[in-house]
Amino acid sequence: MTERPETNLYEPEVRYRVRLSRPVRFGAFRYLPRDDLRILGSALNAMIEENGADVVTSADKF
């Protein structure tokens, strides 16, 4: 059985300022690398689960 990578890297209730490495579709929206994103950790974890860990270039608490 293959081991599943850890996807809950970010605290769910904390807001993060995020930079993406490529365009990402998440829910009804399309996020671009140039966008200034502020995302809850719970949504960020879900985005990583759907699109892969390499989608996030940086994520800092604010």
From TrEMBL:
Q: What is this protein called?
A: Uncharacterized protein
